[in-house]
Amino acid sequence: MAGDNENEQNGLSAASFWEYRGHQKTVKRVEAANKLCSELSLMIHERAELERMYAANLKRWTARWLNFLDSGLVYGSSMSPWKGLCQEAEAISNAHQVSELIHCIP
């Protein structure tokens, strides 16, 4: 049949599920599905934890440098780049906190 030739050319087996031992491939995929789902869930939770830690570290970094700026050593036009970096870090931290929350939605 023409359809069988196309399947064989694409590397697909022409064996039917209903033929002798044809179900084994499906059974194997079903058995692997639980492990795949568990691994995907673990991957997402690990990513969420990384996002949370990164956001927390950026918050601490920003607080440290804002305290330095409040000491009065930096003033005038040089204050703008310092504050800009802190504001950028704060915005990135907030974005990563949101990302962590999205990954942890049950």
Automatic annotation (TrEMBL):
InterPro entries: AH/BAR_dom_sf, FCH_dom. GO terms for biological process: cytoskeleton organization; plasma membrane tubulation; regulation of endocytosis. It comes from the Eukaryota. One of its GO terms (molecular function) is phospholipid binding. Signal peptide: none annotated. Residues 15-102 form the FCH domain. It holds the Pfam family FCH. Coiled coil: none annotated. GO terms for cellular component: endosome; plasma membrane. SUPFAM superfamilies: BAR/IMD domain-like. This is FCH domain-containing protein.
